């Protein structure tokens, strides 16, 4: 796997305003995503998985707010973009697949139209190219401007909090506020110095892009003119040649054919020229059929004109995946993509996601409440609880050596593939995020909780270079608490399964190598 980082989430903090108060949905989480890897984000309902990924997509609900943190993608901080500019940055690079394929599709529109629509809407080639040309400078400017606005907002909130805090004596309040104002002013003044320069750069870049695009359009038009004149001359020459031949001459048919061909080429030229400016319906159709084949929709030509109700749940999810792929994303976010499907279909969709990820070199964020689903999918796993990541590591770290009691509980609650039974459901309910608990949020439900778990939040303890867990059990002074037997049994089973799979794939490889010979 290459180690090119494509997404970096730093200290992301998100809350929702509700009539009952502020719901602290995501609390200072950080993670990276590398090119070509699958990162699974796992946790119970309400742990903040979807909210995190909706923030990456720029589709948080209106009452949601990114209070703090960064979402670095394509050299841009998505957390600081206005909604209006979001789609330009995100553009076609991030695709998302939701839990229920039915609600992602329009029931009254034919499948084909739903797949080609995005291609046709974004089909003005020169407009897209124009935006691409000044994209970087535009966002450098925009990011700085937004950063300054946020600093001011942050200062005002902090002043409000100081004023409200009765534990601070009045005189101290004044001093604190003045110091805060001074330091914010200094930071903003420094940043502001760069603003005019960046604005000029952006405007210059936009101007240059306009000139460049005009030049390119002019070139295309000039080429077209030359091409048209040439084709027209061909038509005239072949007509002349045909007119000079007697109808009953043996070469007449050949000349007539040559004349017809030149006429056809002249006619086609108009379409070829149009295509240099727009994605045509025919092109969009052809690409849709290719993608429908890629995602395993049989008889795509026939299916193209059908409506969603004529598709099974699994096939509908394939259509949703096809739509996400039309824009050629580099990052695919799958939010519980198999939860609404029958168990037998689930594996097919998982296999499909694995296949397209490999073939297209995609990076995938896979959100699920079921650790079992990602056992053979994920390269790395982040376990979320009450708006925080409590453990993260490679798949083998999490499946063979989990450290956080919440990860143990999740592992124990994975339905057994053989008996289809849940071994152990997690006792209790997740905390109310209007009032996030003190200490380790899982303490209330954790049979291994220590006294400190109720008082102080655990930091991340390093288990290995790839593996970290936020549990006091990893502190050097913690009592030696062994994993419950149910977990060690599961681990043994996972290891045996992996060994079996490896042996199977080895046999398959040897066999296919034998076939070749
Ligand atoms: N628009 C909203 N207004 C208020 N609270 C919200 C809103 N959207 C999400 N939340 C809250 O944010 C928290 C995290 O929700 P989120 O949907 O991310 O959880 P999740 O882990 O994805 O669970 P699920 O699998 O149920 O979607 C929850 O407490 C949820 O109630």
UniProtKB/TrEMBL annotation:
GO cellular component: plasma membrane
Keywords noted in UniProt: ATP-binding, Cell membrane, Coiled coil, Membrane, Nucleotide-binding, Transport
Gene Ontology biological process terms in this record: peptide transport
UniProt-listed Gene3D superfamilies: P-loop containing nucleotide triphosphate hydrolases
Location relative to the cell: Cell membrane
InterPro entries: AAA+_ATPase (IPR003593), ABC_Ni/Peptide_Import (IPR050388), ABC_transporter-like_ATP-bd (IPR003439), ABC_transporter-like_CS (IPR017871), Oligopep_ABC_C (IPR013563), P-loop_NTPase (IPR027417)
Residues in coiled coil: 203-276
CDD domains named in the record: ABC_NikE_OppD_transporters
SMART domains: AAA
Main location: membrane
Pfam families, per database record: ABC_tran, oligo_HPY
Topological relation to the membrane, as annotated: Peripheral membrane protein
Region described as Disordered: 498-517
GO MF terms, alphabetically ordered: ATP binding; ATP hydrolysis activity
Family the entry assigns: Belongs to the ABC transporter superfamily.
Alphabetical list of PANTHER family matching this protein: DIPEPTIDE TRANSPORT ATP-BINDING PROTEIN DPPD, OLIGOPEPTIDE TRANSPORT ATP-BINDING PROTEIN APPD
Protein's UniProt name: Uncharacterized protein
């Amino acid at each position: 796997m290459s180690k090119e980082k494509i997404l970096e989430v730093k200290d992301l903090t998100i809350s929702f305003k509700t009539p009952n108060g502020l719901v602290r949905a995501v609390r200072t989480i950080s993670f990276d995503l590398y090119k070509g890897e699958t990162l699974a984000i796992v946790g119970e309902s309400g742990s903040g998985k979807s909210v995190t990924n909706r923030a990456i997509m720029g589709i948080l609900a209106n009452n949601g707010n990114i209070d703090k943190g960064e979402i670095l993608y394509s050299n841009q901080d998505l957390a600081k973009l206005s909604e209006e500019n979001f789609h330009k940055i995100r553009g076609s690079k991030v695709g998302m697949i939701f839990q229920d394929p039915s609600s992602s599709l329009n029931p009254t529109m034919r499948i084909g139209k739903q797949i080609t629509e995005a291609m046709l809407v974004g089909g003005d080639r020169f407009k897209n190219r124009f935006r691409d040309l000044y994209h970087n400078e535009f966002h450098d400017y925009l990011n700085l401007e937004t950063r300054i606005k946020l600093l001011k907002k942050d200062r005002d909130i902090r002043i409000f909090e100081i004023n409200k805090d009765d534990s601070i004596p009045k005189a101290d309040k004044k001093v604190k506020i003045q110091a805060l104002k001074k330091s914010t002013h200094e930071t903003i003044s420094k940043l502001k110095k760069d603003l005019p320069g960046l604005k000029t750069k952006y405007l210059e870049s936009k101007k240059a892009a306009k000139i460049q695009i005009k030049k390119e359009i002019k070139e295309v038009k000039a080429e077209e003119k030359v091409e048209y004149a040439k084709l027209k001359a061909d038509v005239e020459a072949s007509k002349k040649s045909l007119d000079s031949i007697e109808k009953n001459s043996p070469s007449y048919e050949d000349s007539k054919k040559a004349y017809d061909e030149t006429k056809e080429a002249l006619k086609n030229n108009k379409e070829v020229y149009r295509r240099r400016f727009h994605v045509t319906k025919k092109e969009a159709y052809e690409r849709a059929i290719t993608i429908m084949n890629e995602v395993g929709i049989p008889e795509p030509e026939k299916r193209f004109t059908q409506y969603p109700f004529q598709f099974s749940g699994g096939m509908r999810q394939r259509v949703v995946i096809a739509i996400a792929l039309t824009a050629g994303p580099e990052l695919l976010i799958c939010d519980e993509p198999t939860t609404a499907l029958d168990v037998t279909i689930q594996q097919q969709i998982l296999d499909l996601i694995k296949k397209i990820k490999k073939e297209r070199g995609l990076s995938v964020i896979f959100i699920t409440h079921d650790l079992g689903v990602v056992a053979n999918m994920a390269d790395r796993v982040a376990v979320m609880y009450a708006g925080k990541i409590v453990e993260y590591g490679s798949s083998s770290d999490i499946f063979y050596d989990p450290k956080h009691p919440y990860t143990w509980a999740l592992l124990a609650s994975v339905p057994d593939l053989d008996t289809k039974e849940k071994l152990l459901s997690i006792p209790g309910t997740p905390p109310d995020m209007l009032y996030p608990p003190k200490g380790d949020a899982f303490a209330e439900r954790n049979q291994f909780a220590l006294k400190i778990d109720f008082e102080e939040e655990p930091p991340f303890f390093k288990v290995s270079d790839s593996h970290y867990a936020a549990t006091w059990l990893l502190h050097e002074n913690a009592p030696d608490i062994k994993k419950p037997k149910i977990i060690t049994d599961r681990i043994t089973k996972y290891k045996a399964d992996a060994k079996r799979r490896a042996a199977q794939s080895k046999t398959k490889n040897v066999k296919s190598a034998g076939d070749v010979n």
